[in-house]
Design goal:
The complex is a heterodimer of chains A (367) and B (364).
Chain A lengths: L4 H9 L4 E6 L7 H4 L4 H10 L18 H4 L16 H12 L1 E6 L11 H20 L5 E6 L5 H11 L5 E5 L14 H9 L4 E4 L17 H21 L2 H4 L5 E4 L6 H15 L10 H8 E4 L11 H9 L4 E2 L22 H16 L3
Parallel strand pairs in A: 1-2, 2-3, 3-4, 4-5, 5-6, 6-7, 7-8
Chain B lengths: L15 E6 L6 H4 L5 H9 L32 H11 L3 E6 L11 H20 L5 E6 L5 H11 L5 E9 L10 H9 L4 E7 L14 H6 L1 H14 L2 H4 L5 E4 L6 H15 L10 H8 E4 L12 H8 L5 E2 L21 H15 L9
Parallel strand pairs in B: 1-2, 2-3, 3-4, 4-5, 5-6, 6-7, 7-8
Helix pairs in contact in B: 5-6, 10-11
Classes of the chains: A alpha/beta (367), B alpha/beta (364).
Amino acid sequence: MSTTAPERARAAAGRLSIVDCDIHPAMRTPAELLDFLPERWRLHVQRYGARVPQPFMGTLPYPRMTPGNGMRMDAWPPGGGPPASDPDFLREQLLDTHGIDFGILQPLPAGSTTMDLDLGAALCSATNEWQLQKWCRPEPRLRASLCVPQEYPEAALAEIERRAGDRAFVQVAIPPRTIEPLGRRRYWPILEAAAAAGLPIGLHSAAYGQHANSGAGWFSYYIEEHFAFAHSLQTVVTSLVMEGAFERFPGLRVVIIEGGFAWAPPLAWRLDQHWARMRDEVPHVKRPPSEYIREHVWFTTQPIEEPENPADLLDTIGWVGADRLMFSTDYPHWDFDDPRFVFKVTLPPEQRRAIFGANARALYRLD
Amino acid sequence: MSAATLGREASVDLDAIDCDIHPEPPRRADLLPYLDEYWQEAATTRDVDRLDLTSYPINSPLAMRPDWRPQPGDGTSALDRVRRDVLDHFGLRFGILNCLYGAQAMFNEHFGGALCRATNDWIARHWLDPEPRLRASIVVSLQDPVAAAAEIERLAPDRRFVQVLALAMGEKPLGRRYYWPIFEAAVRHGIPLGIHAGSMVRHAPTQSGFPSYLIEDYTGQTQGFAAQVLSLIAEGVFVKFPGLRVVLIESGVTWMPSLMWRMSKDWRGVRTEVPWVKTPPASIMRQHVRMTTAPFDAPPDPADLGRILAHLGSDEMLLFATDYPHWQFDGDAVLPAGLPDAARRKILLENALQTYPRLRETGS
């Protein structure tokens, strides 16, 4: 149980310990990641690109509202490069300014969604190595997400096998917009391996997938797309429960990242009520769905819901459980949540400690 | 005696308006008299008879509450059962029929349109004519919005048609300009757009494809409803058609505050993308969007129900429905426990009268 000097200093000062569960590290140039790819794939990417299922090469399907595809305007490093590409500036603007003891990296390169499975596997592996070399080794406050090509389970298992022993990796990262709902059997080997390695599965909202972003077809606007990320996470939770994944893998824990959380209690109530009448369709689901969700699912806070009456959020926190919420900033994106202002209502001190740091420390075994 | 019948009184006088009753869908033989010669032959030679939606397998618990399932040989007609089980039993002032039938989902828009027109005529003759307490939604083929608008025009003079019906998951999000002829016709005749649970199955119901189980498909309908509300607001439908009311039918209720909170917050950040949206989306939802109460998806502790109403921030959004014969509640527990009395009265009657102007007309 070693603690860092800044931690001890903060503890002595009685300051709130903060863990940021959603930081997006960036490459200064695309070539930065290519350096971690074998020659064969470097040439492939140069010639054919890393193709993902959306119309535009190398940018997002729904253009964001600020430069850099939705960046905080003040996050551009003075020394050049895109936001969150300069470790020194990230350290200064995020970790030091806000007193963040640990930050969990959520890289967003295309490895998990690229259509060429072999390329996807190579990109995931390169992304993992890049996290270690560029971020975690030089800055021990930062921890990595183990990116895997979930549509290619053999390669995903190999990557978990190779890296799960490195404590810099605190979760297995899978985008929620998988080709099939995540609870289906094709993904069980990955769920099993993650549970066996003691790693939660982190599901971060994803900008592309192979299916329309609503059951009524494609949206026109970013404001629609952005909300609908929450739907992809609702699908994950529903599928894991209804396929019996939590029965099969009792050690499986999942983290819902950048999807909000106010939808979770109503979803649990709805699942319980319909399960009560249709449980013979899913006999492998032995208990009310809400119980599995309460035990196995964590939520990061950003983009936090903001009721018109701020105190309404206390109801939601009570229903979700303050022990299942983990603070996140989403740095350096435009809708960054600042730890000083994220809650518009005063939380009881115990909930505050839990949500800002203690829950993430326990789940990710950060101490 | 099944669980569903426990706690059932001989009758309950709610003096309410039931905004979601499902008539048993028509068979080919029912529709043939309302089809022209070409479609009569097509329906017959091409074996189009039952078009039940995959969203509601007929023998599933969802599709029919056990004590509402017709017993073999009991000799009652579908209309008799609606009278006995809902209209009489709950002392209803009106009941609105939403016919869930595959005509709305056909790929051939001409065939679908013909079957929808026949369905509407069949509903008028076989349900509305014999039972003055019944009203109905106009079913249309959404693949052809111009033809759908024409169908609204054709039926609008019959004041017993009080709404036009869409499914929660169709070909495109409903706010798209493509559908505006339908909204124009609806507003011209003072009828709301009803959006009912169900899918035309043009797209996977989730962003991760097709889930394995009906319970996933059904619980996931809320995603379709939320998508339609997002689309209608973002595309500016309520700016263009300020008189339009939208009723989410069989949508569940308790998910709505999370959409209100997030969409209003996002709008503050990115409203330059949709500059025609001038007011916070949550206010637009309160003004234009209504939801039926079955299912409600209420919290387990009735004491929390008042919090949900507070989060909604309006006592005008909820419209009573039994969702007959779908199994959403047991016995006579038509509304979740914990509703304040004042809200109860509005939900049972007044909100529906406000939402459906045609229900305020008397002496029909």
